[in-house]
């Protein structure tokens, strides 16, 4: 499968390297909007029927579809950020609800700036039953420049937690939490 615009991904056989690049300004906007706090909204233990895809493993079926949706969301966000003017492009194809609102607001904030680069992702997926999935990611936003002043140089990648739901037709990212730099 060819990668979509934006997010770089290593070959499936690569170990857990970073998979894309993102800008310090965008991450600050996203982190502020996400309300980076230590509280959690989900269960720490997956349900007994959960399937976990480990780094280096080849996901299949629902796992691959959930990963494709998650990375597609970031691809759409990167493409929209490069278009400028606060456009959301195809973001609604991959995200809904709170996740869509968060990214839409971040894109709006970056709308007038010259944007360069792309995010580096390292997602891991857990499918819970047939209609819920969780993605935990380590987002390196050091190269995605949304035109804002660089922040916390060298602070490190951010933890990202995403909840996905399957509506009977497709997966959509419905929850998105982006933590502060250095949390991953």
UniProtKB/TrEMBL annotation:
Chain intervals for the UniProt region annotation (Disordered): 1-21
Biased composition (Basic residues): 1-11
Highest taxon in the source lineage: Bacteria
Protein name: Secreted protein/lipoprotein
Organism: Streptomonospora nanhaiensis
């Amino acid at each position: 499968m060819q990668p979509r615009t934006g997010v770089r991904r290593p070959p499936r056989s690569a170990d857990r390297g970073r998979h894309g690049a993102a800008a310090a300004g965008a991450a600050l906007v996203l982190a502020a909007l996400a309300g980076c706090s230590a509280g959690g909204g989900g269960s720490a233990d997956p349900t007994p029927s959960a399937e976990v895809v480990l780094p280096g493993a080849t996901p299949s079926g629902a796992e691959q579809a959930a990963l494709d949706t998650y990375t597609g969301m970031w691809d759409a966000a990167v493409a929209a950020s490069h278009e400028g003017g606060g456009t959301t492009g195809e973001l609604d194809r991959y995200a809904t609800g709170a996740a869509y609102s968060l990214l839409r607001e971040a894109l709006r904030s970056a709308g007038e700036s010259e944007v360069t680069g792309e995010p580096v992702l390292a997602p891991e997926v857990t499918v819970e039953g047939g209609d819920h999935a969780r993605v935990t990611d380590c987002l390196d936003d050091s190269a995605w420049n949304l035109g804002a002043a660089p922040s916390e140089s060298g602070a490190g990648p951010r933890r990202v937690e995403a909840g996905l739901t399957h509506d009977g037709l497709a997966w959509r990212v419905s929850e998105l939490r982006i933590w502060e730099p250095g949390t991953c």
